[in-house]
Amino acid sequence: MTKKTDGKELQKQLAWEFPNIGKEAPEQREKAEKYCRDYKGFLNRGKTERECVREAVRMLKKAGYKPFDRKASYEPGDKVYYVNREKALIATTFGKRPLAEGLRINGAHIDSPRLDLKPSPLYEKDEIAYFKTHYYGGLRKYQWGTIPLAIHGVVIKKNGEALTLSLGEEEDDPVLCITDLLPHLSAKQNERPLKDGLKGEELNAVTGSLPYEGEDIKEPVKLGVLALLHDRYGITEKDFLRAEIELVPAGKARDVGLDKSLIGAYGQDDRVCAYTALTAEIDTKKPEHTTVTILTDKEEIGSDGNTGFNSDYVLHYIEDLAEMEGVPVRDVLRASLCLSSDVNAAYDPTFSDVYEKRNSCYINKGCVLSKYTGARGKSGSNDASAETMAKVIAIMEEDGVYWQAGELGAVDVGGGGTIAKFAAHMNIDTVDLGVPILSMHSPFELASKLDIYNTYRAFKAFYKN
Ligand code: MN
Ligand code: MN
Question: In this structure, is residue 258 part of a structural domain?
């Protein structure tokens, strides 16, 4: 029997706490710093799902990936990609084992909360022109006032030509802005609950203030803006009806903290998992199991729509793979392992009461494995099996990946979902894995470089096996 004096030793053997990587593996600081340099570039170039797809395709082509052709035959190590309607993407590295032994599937999402222009957005009120917006995803509206907003999107012109818009990211570009009241006049607004600090129909972005010069006409400021849009892009008011235009926080990803340990940027939910998944996919050479890396759209509004994970596009892709090998797709799905790669809420000491300390994820403790998400009694959750948890933990520990476990906040405080349940719906063993985030869904989300680097390491280990 263990003696009393051996308590510390026994505690080390029997109890478990996740370590801080900065303390346990300081040598990773430099590696994480280096890895995150390109990640910041990815965030700056990919501020919408379409831009992320374009950037991903550029990276994949550079790494030798070819468009997927279901009539072709592929060898272990061959690399292909498939684009779904410019807004979602799947990449594969063919593995050594037959598909009946399962795929290694990794799904992250590339849409982020933002302000979409309404179909008929432009109006003038009291000699100021505005764009009307409709928020996309779960955002806290009051956070989106008085910050510079950039315009990103696409207009499909009458002749079918696709016009790509990106305005507000260069230093001398103009930006748009949603106004808010000055403190001197906000006594009444201050009484509103925080969720109504700015209301949905107050998310109107200032678009111009100069009237069209010359003759006396109705709504001259609106016309001034329309004239500028026509000069610059050749579009008219009607073209907004054939467009997807998104207002996102303008500006680049930045290092945060005097020690530069964090990255602050818009859209890290979930481009942080998209980038780590994509680079791990690219760096996988001749895996055991065939990989399926999915960068999907529409997660923030429930994964619906034909570019969202709840559409059959992923299933159809896997069906194509299965048919190529002449194996029933259900056998492939049943044997597969899927990471639903999404962020989780990092413990925030300033708002500690919404977390349960023992079961929260922490900055600098590595990627977070979330057995379940959902709300209330795990409603809407995948709730991964013990067997699935064991498999994924073993994969990470074999490669010395720093990981932690976490729930999304304390019980009954709130909740949220991911794509996990849709993967599980296909009869695939699935679990959530991702990066802890502070200020999630805000215009400037924070993530730790060490956590990002270890998420990449987790995905590499996952694909290798
Ligand atoms: Mn997410
Ligand atoms: Mn989200």
Answer: no
pLDDT in tens, 136-179: 999 999 999 999 999 999 999 999 999 999 999 999 999 999 99
Question: Which amino acid belongs to residue 22?
Answer: G
> Could you tell me if 390 and 398 are in contact, meaning their C-beta atoms sit under 8 angstroms apart?
no
Q: How far does the centroid of ligand 2 lie from the alpha carbon of residue 382, in Å?
A: 16
Residue 66: pLDDT over 90: yes
pLDDT of residue 166: 97
Question: Mind listing the pLDDT tens digit for each residue in 263-315?
Answer: 999 999 999 999 999 999 999 999 999 999 999 999 999 999 999 999 999 99
* Token pair belonging to 119: 């179909």
In a domain, 371, yes or no: yes
Is the separation of the CB atoms in 121 and 99 below 8 Å?
Answer: no
Ligand nearest to the CA of 301: 2
Split into its structural domains, the chain has a count of 2
Q: What separation in Å is there between the alpha carbon of 424 and the centre of ligand 2?
A: 19
Q: Which domain holds residue 371?
A: 17-112+266-464
**pTM score, whole prediction:** 0.97
Q: How many whole angstroms from 270 Cα to the centroid of ligand 2?
A: 7
Number of the ligand closest to the Cα of 272: 1
Lookup: tokens for 298? 């529409």
Considering the domain architecture, whether residues 440 and 372 belong to the same structural domain is answered as yes
43 to 274, 307, 421, 448: CA distances (angstroms) = 10, 21, 27, 15
Confidence of residue 6 (pLDDT cuts 50, 70, 90): confident
